[in-house]
Structure prediction request, 238 residues.
Amino acid sequence: MTPDDWPSLRPHLDLANTLFPTRGTALVGTWFDQQVARITDPDFARLFSDHIEWDGVVPSDYNHRHIRSAEGDLIGGIRFFGGDLTRPFVEVIAHSFDDLTAMARTVSAEWAVFNPRDLRLLVTPETPLPETARIDQHIFAGHRDDLPNGEQKATLRRFKDVDAAIKMVRDRYADLDHDMPALVQDIRAASDDQLREWRKDKTLMSIMNPNDPPYRTTDKTIVGLIAVSRGTIAWLEG
Prediction:
């Protein structure tokens, strides 16, 4: 089984080879092999079963599954949004369905013991979606040197006072909890330890804009903060 065997992954291969001409296919292939290995990997299942007690569920139910049906095949696995057991969904890794609504029915039946609310699928922008679909995240990617600068109204500077950064994050998320409680269910604040680690790594930056009012800080030029660290989203690394 290779990514090219799955129609849903062919646009990923095209994009990967555009972004990484010499290794795009290998990046997608390595990621796909990891996902397939989770069909039988007991250690992966234990990441869930060691912490979750669910009636009628055995540890192997948390493994990825290769589902075959008359309408299409798929590889996917159960997830919980933000670790919240009341918000189960199925992550679809690859599929061959022409009808995504039919795929949703298959997912609902195959993972019925978890009563998943949704399925999640990573697609390229041109992928047609059913009317009932909604966007969970937008992912923007490009080589750093190719990204447009635009009209530079803000600048970045190393955030020197980590305690001030911690207070800024706490204050902002306290406001979110009060003003937009529904949004708080979907996003999490960086922890104090994460902020300290980013400060140590010199990736924690203050956003400077003297023309805008500051956000709860005595420094009249700091309007926010940002941290950038290396990571991956599926096969995409950066």
In short: The two ends are 26 Å apart (CA to CA). Helices lie at 10-19, 24-37, 42-49, 100-110, 162-179, 181-184, 192-200.
